[in-house]
Design goal:
alpha/beta, Pectate Lyase C-like, 13-stranded parallel β-sheet, 6 helices, 18% helix, elongated, PbH1, transmembrane
Length: 453
C-alpha cells in the first residue's frame, strides 16, 4: 500500500517538473522572440539571453518576460518598442531603447502589469499606461532622448490608469518624472527624479499618495493641478532654483494634506494658487528665496507646526487671502523671530508678522535684501511686531513657537545642527553689536539718500 503511494507521489512530482520546464523558453534574437510571443501559451516564462533584440514587440498573452544581464530590446525608431496588450504581464531585467518621436519604451494597455528592474533610455516616454488599472512600476531606471533637446517625454505616464503604484524608480532628464492624469487611488513612493520640468505632476486626479520621493534640479518638484485629497508626505525637494519654480506648486487643489516634507535651497519652497482647505504641518523650509507663497484665491488653509529657517522671505501672501496659521494654540517656528517668553511656555510672547516694513522696502528696492537677518533689521522687526504700530502685514501667526516643531528628517541637515546657530557666546555678542551699528548706519544713509533724490 505504502509502496504504491510512494510511486504515485514520485510520478506526480516528475509530471510537475516536466510541466514547469515546458513553461520556460529561452530566446537569443529578435526573430525567436517574435515567434515565442506569437506562439506561447499563457503564463509561460520567456527568457531573453544576453544580446540585442531589434524590432517592435507585442505581448498579447499573460507571460513573464525576463532578460538576462545584457539583454537589450532596440526599437526601430518609430512606434513603441514593447506593447503590452494582455493582463497580468511581467517585464523584468531588460534594457529598452529606440522608440518613435512620440512613443514609449513600454506602452501598456492591459491591466495589472508588473514592470521592474528595467533600464529604459533613448525613448520619448519611458512607461506609458493608458486606460488600464492596477500596475506596479518598481526599481526601473528611466530617461528620455539623449542630449539637451527639449523634446523629451515623461518617465512614467499614467492616463486613466487608477490603482497604480510607482516605487523606487530613478528618473532623470525627462519632461516630467511621473505624470498622473485622470488616475485615482495611485501611489508614488520612494522615487528619485533629477532634472525634470516637474518631478511629480498630477492632473484631475483624486486620492493620490506622494511619499518619500526626492526631486532636485528641476523647475517644480511637484506640480499638483486640479486634484483633490492628495497626501504629500515625507518628500525632499532640493535645488529647484528656476525663476518662479518651487519645491511644490499646488494649483487649483483642495482638501489635501502636506506633511513632513523638506524644501531646501529652492527658489520657492511651496507656492499656492487657488488652493483651498489644505493642511500644512511639520514641513521644513530651509534656505529658499521664499519659504511659502500664497497667491490669489488660496483660502481656508491650515498652516501650523512648520519650521522656517534661513529663507530670504519666510511667508508672503496675497492680501485678500484668509488662512489659519495657528491650530490648537500652536503656530509655526521662524528662525528670524525673537524668543521673548516671559511665561516660559512653548510660544513666543508676541505674534509673527510677515510683510513688515523691511519686507515692503525690499519689494520696492530689492538691493536692500542684502541686509536680510542683519541685527538692525531683526531689532526693527521685533519693535514693530511687539508694539501695536500700524503695519501692512498680511500674514500673522498669533502663536509662533519658541523652539522648532519636532520633525524627523531622513535627509538634509539635522535639527540640532540648525538650532545650534541660535547659541550665542561672547564673541558672537561682540560681533552682533558691531554689525548692528554698521547696519543701522548704512540703512539710515540709504534712507536719507532716497528722500534727497
Amino acid at each position: 500500500m505504502y509502496k504504491k503511494i510512494g510511486i504515485f507521489i514520485v510520478l506526480v512530482w516528475f509530471i510537475f517538473i516536466g510541466k514547469a520546464n515546458a513553461e520556460e523558453v529561452s530566446v537569443t534574437d529578435g526573430n525567436e522572440l517574435q515567434e515565442a510571443l506569437a506562439n506561447t501559451s499563457e503564463n509561460r516564462v520567456i527568457k531573453l539571453e544576453a544580446g540585442e533584440y531589434v524590432g517592435a514587440f507585442t505581448i498579447s498573452k499573460p507571460v513573464h518576460l525576463i532578460g538576462e544581464e545584457g539583454a537589450k530590446l532596440i526599437g526601430p525608431g518609430s512606434g513603441n518598442v514593447l506593447t503590452i496588450e494582455a493582463d497580468d504581464v511581467t517585464v523584468e531585467g531588460l534594457q529598452i531603447e529606440g522608440s518613435g518621436s512620440q512613443n514609449a519604451g513600454i506602452y501598456v494597455k492591459g491591466n495589472r502589469s508588473f514592470i521592474h528592474k528595467n533600464i529604459i533610455q533613448d525613448v520619448f516616454h519611458g512607461i506609458y499606461a493608458k486606460e488600464s488599472y492596477g500596475h506596479r512600476m518598481e526599481n526601473n531606471v528611466i530617461t528620455s532622448f539623449k542630449g539637451s533637446s527639449n523634446h523629451k517625454g515623461y518617465g512614467i505616464y499614467l492616463v486613466k490608469a487608477p490603482n497604480s503604484v510607482a516605487t523606487s524608480n530613478f528618473i532623470y532628464d525627462t519632461q516630467d518624472g511621473i505624470y498622473v492624469s485622470y488616475s485615482n487611488f495611485c501611489e508614488i513612493r520612494g522615487n528619485q527624479m533629477v532634472r525634470a520640468r516637474y518631478g511629480v505632476h498630477t492632473m484631475d486626479s483624486r486620492t493620490v499618495l506622494i511619499a518619500q520621493n526626492e526631486v532636485r534640479e528641476s523647475v517644480n518638484g511637484l506640480m499638483i493641478m486640479q486634484s483633490n485629497e492628495i497626501s504629500i508626505v515625507a518628500n525632499s525637494f532640493y535645488l529647484n532654483t528656476k525663476i518662479d519654480g518651487a519645491g511644490m506648486f499646488i494649483f487649483d487643489t483642495f482638501d489635501s494634506k502636506i506633511s513632513s516634507n523638506i524644501m531646501q535651497g529652492n527658489f520657492k519652497g511651496i507656492l499656492l494658487e487657488n488652493a483651498k482647505r489644505n493642511t500644512f504641518e511639520f514641513n521644513t523650509f530651509i534656505g529658499n528665496h521664499t519659504g511659502l507663497e500664497l497667491r490669489e484665491a488660496s483660502d481656508e488653509n491650515t498652516i501650523y507646526l512648520n519650521n522656517f529657517y534661513h529663507n530670504t522671505r519666510q511667508i508672503i501672501s496675497d492680501q485678500e487671502n484668509t488662512n489659519l496659521f495657528t491650530q490648537d494654540n500652536y503656530g509655526n517656528y521662524f528662525d528670524d523671530h525673537g524668543s521673548l517668553n516671559l511665561n516660559n511656555d512653548e510660544l513666543v510672547d508676541y505674534a509673527y508678522k510677515s510683510g513688515d516694513v523691511f519686507y515692503n522696502m525690499t519689494s520696492e528696492e530689492p538691493y536692500l535684501s542684502i541686509f536680510y537677518q542683519s541685527p538692525a533689521v531683526e531689532l526693527w522687526n521685533m519693535i514693530e511686531q511687539y508694539t501695536p504700530m500700524p503695519s501692512d502685514s498680511f500674514v500673522i501667526d498669533e502663536s509662533p513657537l519658541v523652539k522648532p516643531a519636532p520633525v524627523s528628517w531622513n535627509k538634509g541637515n539635522s535639527e540640532e545642527a540648525v538650532i545650534s546657530n541660535a547659541t550665542f557666546n561672547v564673541m558672537q555678542i561682540v560681533t552682533f553689536l558691531i554689525v548692528l551699528i554698521g547696519s543701522l548706519s548704512i540703512l539710515l544713509k540709504l534712507g536719507r539718500g532716497k528722500h534727497e533724490v
